[in-house]
Amino acid sequence: MLTKLTSFATIGLESERITVEVGSTPGEGKIFIVGLGDMSVQESKQRVRHALRAGGYHFSTGLTITVNLAPADLRKAGPRYDLAIALGILIVNGSITLPEAVLESTAFLGELALDGSLRHITGILPAAIACRKLGIKRLVVPAVNGSEAALIPGLEVIAAAHMGEVISILKGEAEPALISAPASSAANIDPELVDFADIRGQEHAKRALEIAAAGGHNVLMSGAPGAGKTLLARAFRGILPPLSQEESIEVTRIYSVANLLPPEIPLITSRPFRVVHHTASGVSIVGGGQIPGPGEISLAHRGVLFLDELAEFPAQVLEVLRQPLEDRRITITRAQGSVTFPADFTMVAAMNPPRFTAGSKERVHRRISAPLLDRIDLTVNVQPVPIEDLQRPAKANGDTTAAVLGRVLKARMRQTKRFTLHTIRTNKEMGVKEIDALCPLKQDAQSLLSQAVDRMGLSARGYHRAIKVARTIADLADAEHIGIEHVAEALQYRQTIED
Ligand SMILES: Nc1ncnc2c1ncn2[C@@H]1O[C@H](COP(=O)(O)OP(=O)(O)O)[C@@H](O)[C@H]1O
Ligand SMILES: [Mg+2]
């Protein structure tokens, strides 16, 4: 007796179709799983045996069961095939019959508990997307994963709490449970979010953050401890434009694969804000592992990667950030092949100012390498605000987060229009080609920049950075052309450490 069920493996962010073939031959009740499954796949035997017994089914009388996970050359991991394996065994040992048409049009994912209930698994959203692509009509998932699968329209989702429930539904003896609507996105709001109006003073830093949010620019804040850098970074999240529907799915997919999707929030609707500590390893930051998974830079995709105390990070860790900052994605290569994760984020970094004794200036140069600094368009010095200012009431303390966000959104709209025929979305992403084509400078703006090159010793890179930032400042001012005032302000955010 032989049967075939469809399931999915996760490779990077993609789902790969896995055919779970189950066959039986006369024998004494053994079960074999072949097809490059790891330890957790092998342990499926014990879980399935128990779950079947708990469900009141005989495992096998006088049968040897062979489970083949195809394609055989792809490594398989995790308990996600439990449900398909259990159903396959029940079919070949004659305990249940399911219509052939149902089996052909259905995919199965789920880990079994010993009592036959279905446990949460990762990578449901990519699997749901793959079903749509492959024309598979129906996806059976654990109840807790139901609303994640239901994000993909046009797919029939059966979310079951128990294996027995799956069988009754597929036989047409029971109705599938209604999938509860995703929790409101309010649950996504960061409790640590700081309102701009609650930060006293710091007009210069706030302005730099507004420009960073408007143009997607990476920003470095340098200032004494207690100056408010971490506070400012927390406020930054609130002035970022909301995620589009398409971006939400993109981000959710990454969190689903990383097993970081809270069951009560199946769709991530606010921009990620990832805080990376300087003790974090290179792998945890860029991703990797035996079966490559996304790192912090991918979890920050379409959002913010916050590197606090930048100078404390080991040089080699900062070095691994260079390539993804350039490419906005990361490719991880393994013997079995390579996977690519998206990593398009805004980097916000904070550090104590370098003390300009010969020795320590050297140190900062060496540790925060020029290639990394090259990707930072805005550098701002943050001075502690005087105590009198801290004591002043919050009222009339400058713009609220909502007001700043309003300006950011307008500036983003200008960019969307500018880049309709291009693959980029924000000014940060402009290369020399786009700068030349899309950033004409007024005469006086041009001469100010030339002077900066001569007098301030602005490097070629610093020159291009200044134009990109000036373009964003002009966008915030709703100006078609970059004027002298935009360039003058942009030059205030140049890197005095490096330029
Ligand atoms: N401009 C400010 N407005 C309001 N509170 C501030 C300001 N600057 C600092 N603080 C207070 O000081 C604390 C320390 O600031 P923090 O952001 O951690 O400084 P840094 O990261 O620069 O060392 C904050 O939690 C906040 O309570
Ligand atoms: Mg801090």
List the helices and strands and how they pair.
Blueprint: E1 2-11, E2 14-26, E3 31-34, H1 39-42, H2 44-54, E4 63-70, H3 82-92, H4 100-104, E5 106-108, E6 111-112, E7 118-119, H5 124-134, E8 138-142, H6 146-149, E9 156-160, H7 163-170, H8 203-215, E10 219-223, H9 229-236, H10 245-257, E11 273-276, H11 282-286, E12 287-288, E13 293-294, H12 296-299, E14 304-307, H13 315-327, E15 329-334, E16 337-342, E17 346-351, H14 358-367, H15 370-373, E18 378-382, H16 387-391, H17 401-418, H18 432-438, H19 443-455, H20 460-476, H21 484-491
Parallel strand pairs: 3-4, 5-8, 8-9, 10-17, 10-18, 11-14, 14-17
Antiparallel strand pairs: 1-2, 2-4, 6-7, 12-13, 15-16
Helix pairs in contact: 2-3, 8-17, 8-20, 19-21, 20-21
The structure holds adenosine-5'-diphosphate (ADP) and magnesium ion.
Q: Can you walk through the features of this model?
A:
The chain has 499 residues and is an alpha/beta fold. It folds into 3 domains: 2-170, Ribosomal Protein S5, domain 2 (2-Layer Sandwich), CATH 3.30.230; 188-400, Rossmann fold (3-Layer(aba) Sandwich), CATH 3.40.50.300; 430-499, Helicase, Ruva Protein, domain 3 (Orthogonal Bundle), CATH 1.10.8.60. The chain contains 21 helices and 18 strands. It has helices at residues 39-42, 44-54, 82-92, 100-104, 124-134, 146-149, 163-170, 203-215, 229-236, 245-257, 282-286, 296-299, 315-327, 358-367, 370-373, 387-391, 401-418, 432-438, 443-455, 460-476, 484-491, and strands at residues 2-11, 14-26, 31-34, 63-70, 106-108, 111-112, 118-119, 138-142, 156-160, 219-223, 273-276, 287-288, 293-294, 304-307, 329-334, 337-342, 346-351, 378-382. It has a 5-stranded parallel beta sheet. Strand 12 (287-288) and strand 13 (293-294) form a beta hairpin. The longest helix has 18 residues, at 401-418. The protein starts with a strand and ends in an 8-residue tail after the last helix. The model is unreliable at 184-188 (pLDDT under 50). Bound molecules: adenosine-5'-diphosphate and magnesium ion (MG). The site of adenosine-5'-diphosphate has 15 residues, from helix 9. Magnesium ion (MG) binds at residues 229-230, 308, 350.
